[in-house]
Amino acid sequence: MKKLSTIILYIVLFTTSIVWIYPYVWMLLSSFKPTNEIYGGFLPSQFTFENYKFILEAADKMERPFIQALGNSIFISVTVTLGVLVTSALVGFGLSRLSFKGRNAVFNFIIFQMIFPGFLFIVPLYVLIRNLGLIDTRTALILPSLVSAWGIFMFTQSFRAVPNEYLEAARMDGANDLWIITKVLVPLASSTVSIVGLFTFIGIWDNFMWPLIVVSDYTKMPLSVLLASFNMQYGSYLGPVLAGSVLQTMPMVVIFLVFRKYFLQGISMSLK
Fold first, then answer.
1. Which residue of 2, 11, 51, 176 has the fewest CB atoms within a 10 Å radius of its CB?
2. Cβ neighbour number for residue 195 with a 10 Å cutoff
3. Distances from the Cα of 232 to the Cαs of 225, 226, 229, 237, 238, in angstroms?
4. At residue 263, does pLDDT exceed 70?
5. Which DSSP string do the residues of 74-122 spell out, in sequence order?
6. H/E/C letters for each residue in 22-71?
7. Contact between 197 and 154 (Cβ < 8 Å)
8. Domain count within the chain
9. Is residue 32, in this structure, part of any structural domain at all?
10. Between residues 166 and 42, which one has the greater pLDDT?
């Protein structure tokens, strides 16, 4: 009976996984089909790169620079990820290893801030960015995301788990706080660094609402927003739209396959 229930469970999980993965596989295969075959059979009768060629070359004539948008996405995602790692490590060190008045209040406020969804802060953030004159700039896409409450919480908890003896030994050798952070705490918290960096990069790469609000210049849009604008105006070009969607999602698929161990660690740590 137990063996039968296990088999049924595996069948259900396999069926569910097929349902989840089918849309992406269909999108991937359809991006290599001629336009007149997209709604035809599942497999293309002939593979063609015309849709990708259109996205990478012809779309520039329609004021949709996809190559530049891809570069924007990479630059913004990498910059924000590095910024979050630096600020989270510095603030996490202060909250975990320094004694100052109001430390617990600051930490509790960070936890309290994590309760609220990010879209609640969009209006005040937009007003601030507008008053600073940063609308339609890449800085508007980077600046609001350089500090992460979740990243600070993760680094604080990770640094607290490091034995005091390591820090005392480093100070006896004349190490300052910055040296301790970079040479002692961060290497010992390498799993936290990987998890925070991975989730931050994915979140920024997939971010859509904020860039849509603050950027209208096609040359400064990330790939996700530029692809949406192309789809709205040239939705009849279904093949190129699918090819652009593959270009948008492929980096995340590769990152997940390469770093899936850290991805699963992050999920398990979030549930603890």
1. 2
2. 24
3. 11, 10, 5, 10, 11
4. no
5. HHHHHHHHHHHHHHHHHHHHHHHH---TTHHHHHHHHHHHHTS-GGGGH
6. HHHHHHHHHCCCCHHHCCCCCCCCCCCCHHHHHHHCHHHHHCCCHHHHHH
7. no
8. 1
9. no
10. 166
